[in-house]
């Protein structure tokens, strides 16, 4: 099987549990350093694509050329039915690249918040293991409308669109199912080092986020690892169908 392409859109992106999960599934990965202006890879060389989060939003597309490049790759993956998984910014970019609106959220979500899978999620091959009330890690200020033809899979208390599927091989997930405890600490430290105040700007103190992580991270990492294992299986089946 061809490797799965991991797209880095932020300098502080570690991919969380993804590398270990894919290694456990016997799947190789390739990394596109999109945020660092590496050349755009060819989809001919990969079996699937995972687009991760970013401290940029799609509104920065005119000043950050990599955003348009990742959007073009996204559209091509959808057109060619190359399995695609967008995480947070990746989910927003997928919606935007398919003509749906991305706008500021009515609230900023940060830390561990509950989600609510909808009926279609029960049969979804990627996300059916999530349960009502599961706490997942959030850090976003934007939200999106669903692209034409998409099906909402998971909703939340404050933000309606938390996960969706577009056709048989394309998913967008707003929450950071990929993150592990080390990456949460890295992001919080980077935010502090940049002069930010997470409590003032996002409405939740750092200490609260850390306490939530201690309570929820083990199950969060387990379920995020399962997402990537399932995605690897989907890529494998799709590859087999095409050979």
Molecular structure report:
It is a single chain. β3, α2 (65-80) and β4 form a beta-alpha-beta unit. The protein has one domain (4-242): Rossmann fold (3-Layer(aba) Sandwich). The chain is globular, with a radius of gyration of 17 Å. The termini are close together. Helix content is 36%, strand content 23%. α1 (18-24) runs parallel beside α6, α2 (65-80) crosses α3 and α4 packs across α6. The mean pLDDT is 97. The protein has six helices and nine strands; from the N terminus they run βαββαβαβββββααα. The protein has helices spanning 18-24, 65-80, 89-97, 181-193, 198-202, 206-242, and strands spanning 4-7, 29-32, 48-51, 84-87, 102-117, 135-144, 151-156, 163-165, 170-173. By secondary structure, the protein is of the alpha/beta class. It has a nine-stranded mixed β-sheet, with helices on both faces.
Number of helices: 6
Helix content: 25-40%
Named CATH architecture: 3-Layer(aba) Sandwich
| SSE pattern, N- to C-terminal | EHEEHEHEEEEEHHH
- Classify the secondary structure makeup into a structural class: alpha/beta
In short:
This protein has 243 residues and is of the alpha/beta class. It has a single domain, classed as Rossmann fold, CATH 3.40.50.
Overview features:
243 residues; alpha/beta; nine-stranded mixed sheet; 6 helices; 23% strand; globular
List the helices and strands and how they pair.
Blueprint: E1 4-7, H1 18-24, E2 29-32, E3 48-51, H2 65-80, E4 84-87, H3 89-97, E5 102-117, E6 135-144, E7 151-156, E8 163-165, E9 170-173, H4 181-193, H5 198-202, H6 206-242
Parallel strand pairs: 1-2, 1-3, 3-4, 4-9
Antiparallel strand pairs: 5-6, 5-7, 7-8, 8-9
